[in-house]
Amino acid sequence: MEGDDNSAPAPVKQLLLDPEAGGEQEIVVNVFLDDASDLHITPFGLYWKHYSGTKPGTQHDIEVNGKPWHTVFKKFAPHLPFESGLFPVDLRTFDLDFQLLGIGENPNPSSIAGGRSSITSLRRSHDMVVVLRDVEPGGAWYRFKLLRKQRTAQASSNVALNAETSANSQAEKNGAPGKAVDGSYDLSHGEYWFPGSRPPTPDHLVITFPERSSVKTIRMLIPMGTKLYVHGHEPLDYKIILEHGEDQTVVADVKDGQHPKIERNGESFTQFVTFDLPEAVPAERVKFICSRTSGLNYGPVIFEFEVRKP
To answer: Which of 65, 31, 28, 24 is nearest to 48 (CA)?
Structure first.
């Protein structure tokens, strides 16, 4: 694995954007760019993918809402781009609008200099990406805003959010089952459901929705192998079952960690695992049953468990 040696400590986690708060909220990024890089915005922080030229933050510090970001880059395989470490903030949302504020020769530009390449942004199911291509000779400072506007209130499509939960077990002092449905993608210690430091018995998590709902998609945020924790905790053998009265629908019966759809989350060593049903299924609750993890002698860890309507 190829990497840089500018290993400055990561900034302290802070809440930047809160969907429950009113009014407009924003993230302002000020960065010197030279060639091709993408900024990825996820629910739990920001990170860069770098393709060519000078890596962002290695020649001049990046500022995020006025706070310095000292980047460290690694390359996980020869054919992959460099990736920076995570700027660990709890964004709670990436439903954001992009606005370019300035391009210039000096930091914090307030006007857009001509003759530079354009910037684009795109929003995906699991993150937002700002695509930056400064291909002209020499680099330039770019300043842009990620804005969360005050939007019309609407019901969340995640019917598991803050729903009633129960489990066969939880680790003492941390690992409460409610942590799996609290809407936070915080990867800190204890911000997850964890049944305990012993082999799965098997372990089960039950989420009961406030009312019967049509379910189309289930998504979990879980560790990857033994990369995040030396003791593992990635579910390898597990079932996900939707229940509607006496009827049951088996959404997943996974063996040996063969998850159907995986989205890796930057350098955090966690992954979103998604299950898309062919058609919506009515249900009052969902059961997650795990019989084996990557830690062998340790129960599973689930940071967040989403159950979404069509």
So the answer is: 31
The burial of 69, by beta-carbon neighbours within 10 Å (0-12 exposed, 13-18 middle, 19 or more buried), is given as buried
**Residue 1: what pLDDT?**
46
Query: How do residues 174-211 score in pLDDT, each as one tens digit?
Result: 789 999 998 877 676 678 999 988 888 899 999 999 99
Residues whose CB is less than 8 angstroms from the CB of residue 117 and which lie 6 or more positions away in sequence, other chains included? 133, 134, 135, 136
CA–CA separation, 110 and 100 (whole Å): 10
Which residues on neighbouring strands pair with residue 254, listed in sequence order? Answer: 238
Cis preceding linkage at 202, omega within 30 = yes
Give the SS3 label for residue 165: strand
In the DSSP assignment, the letter for residue 4 is -
Residue in the structure block whose two tokens are 């903030």: 89
Mean pLDDT over each residue of the chain, to the nearest integer: 84
Backbone φ and ψ for 88, nearest 5 degrees, come out as -85, 90
The single-letter code of the amino acid at 154 is: Q
